Amino acid sequence: MPFYLADYHVHTRFSFDSEETIGAIRKMAAARGLTEVCITDHFSVNPEDKSYGLYPYRKAYEEYLRDSAGEGPAVRFGLEIGEGQYRRAVLEDFLAQADYDFIIGSVHNIGDITIRQTIRERGVDYAFDAYYDEVLGLAEEGDYDVLGHLDLINRYAWDEQGIYRLDAYTHQIDAVLKAVIRRGRGIEVNTSSLYKNCRQFMPNPWIVARFRELGGQIVTLGSDAHSAGRVGDGLAEAAALLKSCGFEAAAAFEKRRPRLWALEKFDSER
Ligand SMILES: [Zn+2]
Ligand SMILES: [Zn+2]
């Protein structure tokens, strides 16, 4: 392996919106020179969410145990939980019987409505305000290791109305980042949006730099791949971004404990 590179946001057929196997993901991770990959299938305890009731924990865990053994990149077992600040008791019950290495906390909905639908029905100003309120609630109350795609609303606002707000929500974003840091948690740099219309990291690089400035230390890199062909996409660029923001290491997780891997091999030029 030339250097350490870990993809900490990958979906498999145990997500409602993917058909990929863990084996195929691991094979692709090896072909692309990744050292580690973490499976993070969708899970929600909100009956209105698209993923509700569609995550078969036992099957996912069995396949993980089978396909993560032997030679090849390390595979970790994680989860992407939507709006984990709500229905906390149900979530706690679920997590108590499970054995995860890593949890991404994400906001996909505002109340019971998807972000995209909220923009269409309530307008972009309402949607931005309400979105960052949800993210702050999650940052303060949720059970997560890193916050997923922190400014996801920019991707959808760009798709829907050509709007991308770079610094209009600095106050809310600062509050979110401070809550994350206070709780000893982290954020991710999600590269999937580099290949969408807005062609930008999630969150925007200024948020990553701000996280560092405020004292943030834990950042994972994730492709958010829903098929093996996308595993590792944009990760070297994300590692370079982290380095240019002053980070010396990115994070990996085992049994929900962070472990840092050095970024020294990555050029800070994008
Ligand atoms: Zn997500
Ligand atoms: Zn995802």
TrEMBL record:
Kindly list the GO molecular function terms attached to this UniProt entry: histidinol-phosphatase activity
Q: Which UniProt keywords apply?
A: Amino-acid biosynthesis, Histidine biosynthesis, Hydrolase
* Pathway in which this enzyme or protein is active: Amino-acid biosynthesis; L-histidine biosynthesis; L-histidine from 5-phospho-alpha-D-ribose 1-diphosphate: step 8/9
What's the Enzyme Commission number for this chain?
3.1.3.15
Keyword Transport in annotation = no
Q: Which terms under GO biological process does the entry name? A: L-histidine biosynthetic process
The residues covered by the Polymerase/histidinol phosphatase N-terminal domain are 6-64
Q: Name one Pfam family in it.
A: PHP
Tell me which SUPFAM superfamilies the record gives. PHP domain-like
Identify the domain of life.
Answer: Bacteria
**According to its record, what are the GO cellular component terms?**
cytoplasm
Q: Using the record for this protein, list the coiled-coil segments as residue ranges, or answer none.
A: none
Give me the reactions it catalyses: L-histidinol phosphate + H2O = L-histidinol + phosphate
Give the record's family classification.
Belongs to the PHP hydrolase family. HisK subfamily.
- PANTHER family hit by this protein: HISTIDINOL PHOSPHATASE-RELATED (PTHR21039), HISTIDINOL-PHOSPHATASE (PTHR21039:SF0)
Name listed for the protein in its UniProt record: Histidinol-phosphatase
Q: Which organism is it from?
A: Eubacterium maltosivorans
